[in-house]
Amino acid sequence: MRKSVYDADVLVVGGGIVGLSTAYALSRAVPGTRVTVLEKEAGPARHQTGRNSGVIHSGVYYRPGSLKADFAVRGAAELVKFCAEYGIPHAVTGKLIVATDRAELPRLHALVQRGRENGIPVRELGPAQIAEYEPQVRGLAGIHVGTTGVCDFAAVAAQLAETSGADIRYGAEVTAIDRRPDRGVAVRTADGAVLRARVLVNCAGLYCDRLARLAGDDPGMRIVPFRGEYYELTRPELVRGLVYPVPDPAFPFLGVHLTRGIDGTVHLGPNAVPALAREGYAWSALRPRELAGTLTWPGSWRIARHHWRYGAGELRRSLSKEAFASAVRRLLPAVTADDLRPAPAGVRAQAVLRDGTLADDFLFHESPRTVHVLNAPSPAATASLPIGREVARRALAALG
């Protein structure tokens, strides 16, 4: 097939921050590369990118040498520079991680060591020093992580789209893929349009496993959606910045934390519960076929058996505002249930392997003419610029 019959050199599926940063990186790595981005929604960043806490993560939690650690540390600095260059609202505020129980102290000290191994400025705090940063927060000990911040990730995604040089098509849901190693990739969208490209990049987030199967690949994992539920604090003056509990490595989530966003509002959460649809932003959002896909995946049941106690606590906080407030009071004793106002939820696209392992790091899969991003967990938004370069590097290699 002659090059002239291709509509693009690289076709990126997904208009979230990872897909858009990939398009942005491609145009800068090899100017003149023809890139098309297909996004099923009417605009960018409508799901994970636009429905998170807005935190620029430092990388303090991540295993030294992991992609998450490397991408987060480099990505945080690059993201702040990007926001400053384009006038995107952001602030480097630092954050507190606070131990409220003696059993958490060894894990807190381990975070200090991990942060230093990752080259992150970490300051150890006693109770009085915690109060200097956050007068209403109580804890036995804490650490201050200086490179954490907040920004508007939806604005970052919009800027990436504007400056990527890509042909970005919204309302373009991919329904079929025909891949032939000697003839490139053809994609059909819901409106019947067909586009041909030399290489396909799958950045479809919540639907990345489905897209991989459309391309004829076995991803070896399944996206199991978890809804992150938030409340807004009606007394935002109680929290100055960002306050996190000490995470328990036995569980897959960080726990309920306090986040003052770039707009001055304070969000509490997320509380993580299984979603009944991949875009299940409320209990009422149910898609039977998607739920059946989750329930028939062997890894889902293995997760349930392993984490049922933790899950029961999350479910209780989902159903009871008082239970949620009780979790918040571990860090912020002055909070009552009356101080909480429901806020929009997000859904995390958690990659789960067949044996029930939750993919913890970034997960890529390459096959002829195709690059799949199968797990892009937090800190994906923070690390979007280096992730985009990594995916672009793989896509350019596939171009040959």
Structure explained in plain terms:
By secondary structure, the chain is α+β, with helices and mostly antiparallel strands. The chain has two domains: 3-48 and 155-220 and 360-399, FAD/NAD(P)-binding domain (3-Layer(bba) Sandwich), CATH 3.50.50.60; 92-149 and 222-353, 2-Layer Sandwich (D-Amino Acid Oxidase, Chain A, domain 2). The chain is 32% helix and 28% strand. It is built from ten helices and 19 strands. The chain has helices at residues 17-29, 67-86, 105-117, 127-133, 153-163, 208-214, 288-295, 298-319, 321-329, 384-399, and strands spanning 8-13, 35-39, 55-56, 90-91, 95-99, 122-125, 141-145, 149-151, 167-170, 174-180, 184-189, 194-202, 221-233, 242-245, 257-260, 266-274, 340-353, 363-367, 370-375. The strands form three sheets. Strands 1, 2, 9, 10, 11, 12, 18 and 19 form an eight-stranded mixed sheet that branches. Strands 6-7-5-14-15-16-13-17 form an eight-stranded mixed sheet. β15 and β16 form a beta hairpin. α1 (17-29) crosses α10 (384-399) and α2 (67-86) packs across α10 (384-399). The longest helix is centred in the C-terminal third of the chain and has 22 residues, at 298-319. It is globular, with a radius of gyration of 21 Å. The model has no long low-confidence stretch (mean pLDDT 95).
